[in-house]
Hints:
This protein is an alpha/beta fold. It has helices at residues 31-37, 66-71, 90-102, 118-124, 150-169, 175-188, 196-206, 214-220, 258-278, 290-293, 297-308, 310-313, 336-346, 361-368, 372-376, 403-409; strands at residues 51-55, 61-63, 80-83, 107-113, 128-131, 246-250, 283-287, 315-321, 350-353, 385-390, 393-399.
Amino acid sequence: MRRGAAPTTAPPHGRLRLAESLHLPAHRASSVTLAGAYPFLAGPPCTTGPLVGVDAMTGGPFCFDPWALYTAGELTNPNTVLAGVIGQGKSALAKSLAVRAIATGRRVYVPGDPKGEWSFVAEAVGGAVVRLGPGLPTRLNPLDAHGMGTAEAHGPRLRILGALGALTLRRELRPSEHEAMEASLAAVESHPEPTLSEIVDALAVHTTLDGEGRDLEYALRRLVRGDLAGMFDGTSTQRLDRAAPMTVLDLSGIGSDDDALAVAMACASAWLEHALVAGSAKRWVIYDEAWRLMRSVPLVRRMQAQWKLSRAYGIANLLVLHRLSDLDAVGRAGSEARALAEGLLADCSTRIVYRQESDQLEPTRRALGLSTAERDILTTLPRGTGLWKMPRRSHVVHHHLTAAELALFDTDAAMRDEP
């Protein structure tokens, strides 16, 4: 029935009789009200930034640039979380976002690549790959000042030492250990480039008479004489090229030890930290396989500090997870550790969700603030299709890859006996 037509009635002789058209007054309402009254109308298109794929609701193009959308008031921050079960194409999406952003003048940092998948991508776009692992020649000094003065570098150095101490001790530092650490840093900070080896030696001197600080000294020795020796215990052998379109820290040589990965990630991210602060270009900072990192409270705390400063630094962080129940590995509900991890998600204005298993629907809905309708489509999404939820809009997007991208981003070659 056309708008304005009167209801039809069936007269006794069986023919339909149309009443005269009703002249209704114009009705004015907000877009929120009209969206409820006419739920099948699609929202406004998202056409700013590099092309991602096709909007499933409209058939039109879907583009994404977190900086432009933030400037337009569509996002409250530029950070993004991407979640989906294995094999649904979320890794290809992350790499596609990175490579296509480079074409628009953005730069990309991957501060930890546990599986070595990003190295090929960085090399393909003319970027830099820093490979770390036992026996490899590369060494990064997490206390490297990158040209900062001693006073300016003191705070960042103290924070990374505190994070490394908490990671290696697997607990928070005691006040006496903080004091011993500060005294040790002050003792070596006059050197041209302080190193962790010098800090460990200074801790042996500044440990209190009752032995407070000894545990910290022994814990940090893992980075100097233990299984992580040779990677972070001396001066840096690599200098950061801020002009490189993509910089990847390949940590695949460390293996499957999540504790070692967390320590290496903390050291490597500290090495990159000054570049994030001092540079002027807008950058994606991508945390792939983030479920492994979320188990480390000190590392999550460092990530959260970076999240909070993303707008000041011009950074868009991308956190890649399998499922939202990965947060259970951080801590129980209500704990400080869990609150830190949930804070990361809260500070992600864009939530991209690929297919989820049925038992993950409700945790995902609660964690990401999805509506019931949005939750219900998550089990039906085909490979390469995701729900993109932003503060004022939602889209279902088919991600499109070119043939060259498909060959470069493919992570299933080993399953098909291909090189």
